[in-house]
Design brief:
Pfam family, one: BPD_transp_1
Membrane topology: Multi-pass membrane protein
Domain ABC transmembrane type-1: 72-285
Family: Belongs to the binding-protein-dependent transport system permease family.
Helix content: over 70%
Mean pLDDT: 87
Distance between the termini: 51 Å
Main location: membrane
CATH architecture: Orthogonal Bundle
Strand content: under 5%
CATH topology: MetI-like fold
Length: 296
Amino acid sequence: MRTRKSRASRDNGLFGLAAVAFGLYLCFLVLPLLLSLKSSFTDENPLRATSGFVGLDNYGEMIHDDQLHASLGFTLILAVGVTIAANAIGIAFAMMLNRTNLSYRVMRTIAFLPQVLSGVIVGFVWQTILTQQGLLNVTLQRIGLIDSPIAWLGSPNLALLSIGVVVTWILTGFTTVVYLAALQGVPVELYDSAAIDGATTWQRFTRITFPLIAPGMTISVTISLITVLKLYDVITVLTGGGPANSTRSTALYIVKLAFTDNRFGYASAVAMLVLAMSAAIALSVTSLLRRREVNF
């Protein structure tokens, strides 16, 4: 009897927790999403008391919106470049730190620190480094590599590169941890057998390590892409979308539409576009990488 009562009590407790979690999910994710979808079919403006239904006009306007196209192009270029760089560096770091010594465990913690820091804090720290009188330019001048300060955040190409480096630095902590977990699931016996057979380090990596960390790569690549596609805080602090809007991500553009231009309806439509695009890219990449897992 007591066992049945304890099980019933535990099940009721779990049901209560699940209900609370589901309620929070509905309130903070599903409901705002539905409200945003509804708003995307209107000309909602916070300065007007009422809003009218405009159908698909907001979505049609996006076809001719050059600012939207520019922000999408920048976001996609940044997402692809950062994802490739962060995952490549993450694999390299994971292989170097895949040891059990205390010193390596400390280095793992240090490697993960950028991931737990606020994006605003990271942006301010890197801004002080990358300004014309910042630490990077001062160091390069002192060692004689440059004669005058470089505007790392002042020209479109360098600003894109600088943001890419900063975001890659942030994401590398996450990718390193994912690949470390994947590497710890690779049987050591496979490496021993390969060494006996005379396999080189590169052959062991391409024929054992790389195929067996495929599930970790699927997770890491997908989350990296999604993270960069919705990036806002770091870019806002570093460049504010400048110079000349060359580093304005789609998230920054949505905020501008909503809170500067007061076009809530059109901003919601752009947000729906970004959501659909992110979902399509994430599903496509996940499907492609999962197929790779099966092939290996």
